[in-house]
């Protein structure tokens, strides 16, 4: 367990006392803070970059990012996976602009330096014009020093110190296991994403993904519409709980009692299949709707991955990747996909095709405008603060509308920005 969690912070940007938990507006609006968090937060965490099912064959690649650092995730000819900084070693051009593809070599468009798909430099045009041994000294594309996979999820870490992926997940790991257990073989395939750009800080969507308090207000009209069409029962869906973890992870948990009637048979079939595989008791633990934050910017949602990509301090992109479970009939996957893609439940509604997430994007823009216009504001996260319970597993438990996952996030954010190992002190 981390020693630095729950320590009262006197630095000011993230303030915690026995009765207050608040975050300074500059954390969302200040460009200098953003620049620093792109390094201190993203380069000192395990950051999701791709899923192995997206690069199944030698030569497959996909471009991604660690904070603002562009990367190419490749499967080299020998099958090994590499996470390479997508910045040419000559004069810094992005080497690959495609989102995905298959290539043995990447040729920089500026002066033709060419790299193998494991990052090694293969060719420098007119190499004789450079000083002797100079090219060897420069080397190939920079590789993330640490890459680790779990259930096909590829994580990269740019700091070569610190905990391994399993320690980083800690008590959260059991919930990741449960989430992937929706597949009898605990494996899945990731489909191409849909995406939405919003005019707000990246942390607004990260906070929101485990915010159980906002839906009844922000999505009120959406819920009324669902009730009108019989796909939502207002009495259902506010039960559940929140969890907070070391290293900033969090969960919003709800009973899965809002399955739209049109896909109920597919969900019944999935549940029966899981009962056959894992038994009744374990299936009861698995078959819960969990929205999981893996710090800093990745979420396991209802049959989809959600990745929040920072662009600038006030611009971000949400990528949502529907998933298809291995080991279940196609029509069950179709039912899950319908739940994710269509406006048929509060947990569905994609960033671009559904009206639920459109509500959120509107609110993010309002928060960004409000905080920019009133920089004295402190953003409040005290809901449930006095009722947090520490469980023997090393996690903290709260009620379904508590701001507990958000507090876990900011405790870790504060630790990385100000804590041990950095020693830089306050940034503003
Ligand atoms: Fe890439 Fe010159 S910047 S070859």
What would you say about this model in short?
The protein has 13 helices and 23 strands. It is of the alpha+beta class and 428 residues long. The N terminus and C terminus are likely disordered.
Explain this structure to me?
With 428 residues, this protein is of the alpha+beta class. 28% of the residues lie in helices and 26% in strands. It contains 13 helices and 23 strands. It has helices spanning 26-29, 31-40, 134-138, 165-169, 173-180, 202-208, 215-218, 220-228, 264-278, 280-286, 330-341, 355-373, 404-418; strands at 14-16, 21-24, 47-51, 60-66, 69-75, 81-85, 100-102, 105-107, 114-116, 121-123, 146-150, 153-157, 188-190, 194-198, 241-244, 250-255, 288-294, 298-301, 304-312, 315-325, 378-380, 389-390, 396-399. Strands 13, 14, 15, 16, 17, 18, 19, 20, 22 and 23 form a 10-stranded antiparallel sheet that branches. Strand 11 and strand 12 form a beta hairpin. Helix 9 (264-278) crosses helix 10 (280-286) and helix 9 (264-278) crosses helix 11. It is globular. Bound molecules: FE2/S2 (inorganic) cluster.
